[in-house]
Design brief:
The structure is a single chain. The chain is of the alpha+beta class and 186 residues long. 36% of the residues lie in helices and 24% in strands. Strand 2 and strand 3 form a beta hairpin. The longest helix has 16 residues.
Length: 186
């Protein structure tokens, strides 16, 4: 069965859209998903299912609305996709660096060619970004802080006209490792 990672946008931030991970895990299990596990409070859920990938996002978003009472955008990636994303990062990710950090914005859907062209015109004297070959991820190199970066999640969503959620390199690497372990369990 395929293994997936669901990344929830904007939960447990500044006291908004609060979801306890134990409750989120229970919700996924009640949906019939197997080997469900969560990772940190930002809303990362690993699971296995035979359900069609095309319906997962809307089914999970609808269930979150029913259970928790608010809308949450969910981005879905297979474990194989996550592995590809982390293996093809165009920036050197140094987890020991106190300053330079790599982030990855994961888009819920592919943006239009016009919106991609608009984003590609944007520059910063401090930070850099690169769009993935699939056009579903934006790699961001922050040389100071994501809070000071031009390339925030909201900025990318506005430019690309697509919902997104951003994770740091450490989280992406850990999710990839957890996903690989999930697929090798018997």
């Amino acid at each position: 069965m395929p293994a997936y990672i669901a990344l929830l946008r904007g939960i447990n931030v500044s006291g908004q859209k609060l979801i306890k991970m134990v409750e989120l895990k229970q919700m996924f299990e009640q949906m019939g998903f197997e080997r469900v596990q969560t990772y940190i409070q930002s809303g990362n859920v690993l699971f296995i299912t035979e359900d069609a990938e095309t319906a997962l996002r809307s089914n999970i978003e609808q269930r979150i609305q029913e259970v928790f009472g608010f809308d949450v955008t969910v981005v879905i990636r297979t474990v194989e996709q996550m592995e590809y994303i982390t293996n093809h990062c165009p920036f050197e990710a140094d987890p020991t660096s106190a300053v330079e950090k790599v982030y990855i914005a994961l888009l819920a859907e592919k943006p239009s060619a016009d919106n991609i062209a608009k984003l590609l015109l944007c520059t910063s004297e401090i930070d850099e970004f690169q769009l993935s070959s699939s056009k579903l991820e934006v790699y961001i190199l922050c040389r100071q802080s994501i809070r000071k970066s031009v390339f925030t999640n909201n900025f990318l969503e506005k430019k690309l006209g697509a919902a997104a959620t951003t994770r740091n390199w450490q989280t992406m690497s850990k999710l990839t490792a957890l996903g690989k372990a999930l697929t090798t369990e018997s």
